[in-house]
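Entry:
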Amino acid sequence: MKVLITGGSGLLGQYLNKTLSQKFEILTCWNKHQGNCTNYPNLRLDLTNNDQITGTVKEFQPDVIVHAAAFASPILPPEISRAYVNQVNVTATALLARLAQQVSARMIYTSTDLVYAGYRGSMLTESAKLVPLSLYAETKLIGEGKVARECENHVILRTSLMYGIGLNHAVSHFTGMVKSLKEGKPVKLFTDQIRTPLSYADAARMIGEVISQLEIKGIYNFGGKDRLNRFEMGEILCKLGGFDTSLLIPSSCRDIPNYPAVEDVSLNTEKLGAHGINANSYEHQIKTLLSRLSY
C-alpha cells in the first residue's frame, strides 16, 4: 500500500515516517526542514503551490493520503497573513481531498479538538457543539467540510493535545519542560484548559492501525485516555521523573494575549476504541519517554 504523508518533518510527521514505513511504501513531504524525511523517499512540497500538489499526487498515485501538514498556531503571528493560513489549511486540504477522490485514494485528515466549543461539558463525543475560537481551529473545521465533500473515502481525526520527544530539528514543549525541571528552573503550566493528551508515538501507531482497517470512515475523536490539564500533566511528570513539583507554577491561558481560552475539550474516544484502536495511559507514555531521555 502506498501512503503519501504531508507534514512529514513536523513533530507528528517524523513519527509517522518511522511507524508507517515499517508497513507501507511511503512518500513523505516536507517544506522548510527535512528532519528524518531524508531517511525515506521524500520531496519538498509547498502547500501554496497547487500545481506542485497536483503533480505530486498524480505521479505517486497513493492508496492513502495522510494530511498532517497545517499552520497550527492558536495565535496568529503578525508576519503570517490570514490568506496564507487559509491557503495551507483550507485550499490545499480541499485540493488534496479532490485529488484523493480522483486517484481512488483514502484521505486521512488530522483536525483538532479545538473545533469544539470547550464550554459544554467534558469527554465530548463527535456530535458535540462546534465553536472554533481561533483562526487555526476555524480553518481546520472548514478543512473538515472540504474533505467530507471532496473525498468519499475519508477519515477525519480530531486530535487532542500532543506531546513527546521532538526528533531532529523539531523541538517539543515536553522536551523543554524536562530540560527546565532538570536544571531546577520554574515551568508555567495552565490549570484552566483540560485536554486528553496523546503522545506522538501513540498517534502514529494509531494512524497506522486506522490505515489497516479499511472500514473506518468519517469523523473520530483522536485523543488519549486521561482527562488532564497541563499542570496535572506536569505533576505526573515530576512524580515519575523525580523532579521537584515546587518548580511547577500554575498559570491561566487567559494570561496570554489573544490566546483562545478553551476550557474543556477532553475527548470521548469510544467510537475509535470500538475498532480496537486505543491510546496508552499518560503515565505509561511518560515512563516510556523518560526512559528514552538522559536526564
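DSSP finds nine helices and 13 strands in the chain.
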